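Need residues for this backbone.
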């Protein structure tokens, strides 16, 4: 029986594709590494994106990767487009103007199965977005910001 090691899930970054008064288009890039000698199945990787407003994060969007196979000793990069239509964006826009930036927090859980084991692996990451980056997007000066 092979010695199994816990897979590694990382949020590689968030790319802002478009910022509108009523919606925010994002591209979330995730990586799942399989350090084992047998393939693994990423059953799902649901995540939620929050706008950090003081002590209380407000949910603005969610996404999921769906099912993927990850070969032995390989990693898989997954890009998930997400669009949010949420009134919280109005508060985010006000914070953007008032403070010169906003903070997004992404939280999720990767559910990974091997033939003889399974894991639920949580991850979280905070991404700062400045008003200058949003202005550049609105004016078409930037094709998207990759945050890490």
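Answer:
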């Amino acid at each position: 029986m092979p010695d199994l090691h816990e897979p590694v899930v990382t949020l590689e970054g968030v790319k802002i594709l478009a910022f509108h008064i009523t919606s925010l288009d994002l591209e979330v890039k995730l990586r799942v590494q399989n350090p084992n000698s047998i393939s693994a199945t990423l059953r799902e990787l649901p995540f939620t994106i929050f706008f950090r407003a003081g002590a209380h994060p407000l949910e603005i969007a969610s996404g999921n990767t769906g099912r993927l196979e990850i070969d032995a000793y390989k990693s898989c990069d997954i890009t998930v487009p997400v669009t949010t239509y949420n009134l919280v964006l109005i508060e985010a826009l006000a914070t953007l103007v008032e403070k010169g930036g906003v903070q997004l927090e992404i939280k999720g859980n990767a559910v990974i199965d091997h033939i003889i084991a399974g894991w639920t692996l949580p991850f979280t990451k905070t991404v700062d977005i400045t008003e200058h980056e949003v202005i550049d997007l609105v004016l078409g000066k930037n094709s998207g910001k990759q945050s890490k």
